[in-house]
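B., you asked whether I could sanity-check this one before it goes into the benchmark set. Here's the sequence:
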Amino acid sequence: MRTSSALTDQIHTLTDGLLAELVDFRRDLHAHPELGFNEHRTTAKVAERLEAAGLKVRRFSPTGLAADIDPATEPGPATRRLRRVALRADLDALPLQEDTGLPFSSTVPGVSHACGHDVHTTVVLGAGLVLAELARQGALHSAVRLIFQPAEEIQPGGALDLLDTGVLEDVDRIFAVHCDPKVPVGQVGTRIGPITSASDTVTVTLTSDGGHTSRPHLTGDVVYALGLVATTTPALLGRRLDPRAGVNLTWGSVRAGSAPNAIPTTGTITGTLRCLDARTREKAENLLQELITQVVAPTGVETEVSLVRGVPPVDNDEVCTRILDEAARAVLGPDALVLTEQSLGGEDFGWYLTAAVGAMARLGVRTPGGRAYDLHRPDLVVDEDAIGVGARFLAQVAAGAGRDLHT
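And here's what the prediction gave me:
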């Protein structure tokens, strides 16, 4: 078996040989973005390249796929089964008009890769090509599954569809990266525990008989009640739950009425309930119904609360996070690691962590000393040096994580 340093050197060499192709591949995806569950061209491009590398691809309806890379050596007699590490990428784009001016900007009106999923896909593809070549050379001693998932941007997420296919059967650990435009290229961010939030959609519908604004005492005032829900409920929620759990209720839409002198019969307010802690999430959902009912009760308005569950938190396993750390130092250098921030954004990689242990790292995509962009903005620009960094990093992660499983 090759030494760890020899394997790392080989990962560097193989990745360097793929860099030009991977950049071209990412640019092609970037110019042809597709929305969730419609990533037909994207999936076909990935499948074509994996098959050209000699890998057998499994397709999942409508646009998911997976491919296995088998190790150079079979597990020993003490091992009951082949143990496998998975790398996951997401394929979909966002319904945003790109505004970057790049020569390979989106050619699809109103659709763009403003969250970096084109980079995620290319990075996992690149890592997979490196690992496949290592396997051919007899240098890979880890079983790896590449997972390319549709519809991460659609709640509750396309991960659930792939989990229903059994894509994580025989997978012991799963890893992923997500672009971070605030972290310089060459660095990755990790953290043990939750790094993203659960995200649930809340809709409150209020109804009354309505009436004239000159006689508000004769009816339930829906607009006034909506104001109470909007301002009072988040404050009360913050006083009833542990603030360390990162609970946040923020409203995004309020709708009621059409005339200045008429109290409407109905009104709605919608928003998101986010929480870093899965157990506190359960308490928050039950408490929210109670608080809204109590807040609205004095107004005489009828209340209906609907909560649609979205994604769970991405809660990084400690051992898997250590594997990310070790891989970053090995392949990127001792200064590559930074402590990633916790985010109240949602990421459906959290679903995979309900079925297997794993961890996600933040991949730095900012040009060192350059502008810090933000995700989900039409002007997002990614430093393409991050593609090689990410491919090297994930190849090292998979090789190291699998080796650890067999020791």
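One thing to flag: The two ends are 13 Å apart (CA to CA). Otherwise nothing jumped out at me.
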